[in-house]
Amino acid sequence: MNDSPSPIPDSRRVEVVAGAITDARGRVLLARRTEGRDLAGLWEFPGGKREPGESPEQALVRELREELGIEVRVGPPLIAVAQQYPDKRLRLDVRSVTRWRGTPRGHEGQALAWVPRDKLPGYAMPPADQPVVAALLQPDRYLVTPVPASPADDDAWLDRLRGALRNGVSRVQVRLPGVDVARRRALVTAAAMDCARAGAELLVNGDAALAQDLGLGLHLPAAQLRGLAERPVAAEVPLAASCHDAGELRLAEAIGCDFAVVGPVRATPTHPGAPGIGWAAFEALREHVSLPVYAIGGLGLDDIAQARSHGAQGIAAIRGLWP
């Protein structure tokens, strides 16, 4: 399914910096693109193009001074999103900003809005800005459960799941290939109760009927995704997919998946003999969609910052997140 269009040359790559400017109430500042610009009328995180010789921090300070009339202290990186448009390749480097002097005003005629975080998804945005919203709101780690070796290990498996939840995991995929129907239902039911108590989201791998019966989300393996022409669950049900190429990613976006997983980035014992695609290939894939995309394959908590620097929502993992 790798039907990627011809890539835009690197010579037409545009480096953009932006700030996720957050006030003391937790609201985030958005600016509306003015008439006469590309994507006019859409809302975006304030910022602009990085000039030759500027560091990202220098460019963001300058842009926010020119656009909003404020002097900012640039915080840590949030996410850097590569996005391919019909006429250019854009890389949006977003930094957290919580400290500044002055009152933000639209010095270029742009409307501004202070938006509560939970309202951000309701604002129409350019494709590159949409993963930034996900980075602000959604988990940066996605646990894929291993398979308990035998029924005698099921209680220990549930204990380890609870340990992962205590360690900060708040999005879980239960993947139980080869486990019989009755045992799978019992494990998923118990896992769902633990996740509900912890405020975590649970998705079931591949079993739409079980997910529907238990009121849980659904994670589509790539083979199952490729057989679909529309969303297989209701809009309010969390839906994700495993993808390996640009065609699968675009299909996941087209049927309304909420996020996707791409990899393996590195070689992993789960797929012996399969080389990892590496971060450059991961970034090249994610620029075809505006979905949040997790990187998977030999990754752990120490890789989250690097994953975010290549446009990932975060990391998905079995061993890296399983206590």
Characterize this entry briefly.
With 323 residues, this protein is an alpha/beta fold. The protein has helices at residues 56-68, 130-137, 154-166, 181-198, 208-214, 222-226, 246-254, 278-286, 304-309, and strands at residues 13-21, 28-32, 43-44, 47-49, 71-73, 77-85, 88-97, 99-101, 112-115, 141-144, 171-174, 201-205, 217-220, 239-243, 259-262, 293-296, 314-317.
Write the layout of secondary structure elements.
Layout: E1 13-21, E2 28-32, E3 43-44, E4 47-49, H1 56-68, E5 71-73, E6 77-85, E7 88-97, E8 99-101, E9 112-115, H2 130-137, E10 141-144, H3 154-166, E11 171-174, H4 181-198, E12 201-205, H5 208-214, E13 217-220, H6 222-226, E14 239-243, H7 246-254, E15 259-262, H8 278-286, E16 293-296, H9 304-309, E17 314-317
Parallel strand pairs: 1-7, 10-11, 10-17, 11-12, 12-13, 13-14, 14-15, 15-16, 16-17
Antiparallel strand pairs: 1-4, 2-3, 2-9, 5-8, 6-7
Helix pairs in contact: 3-4
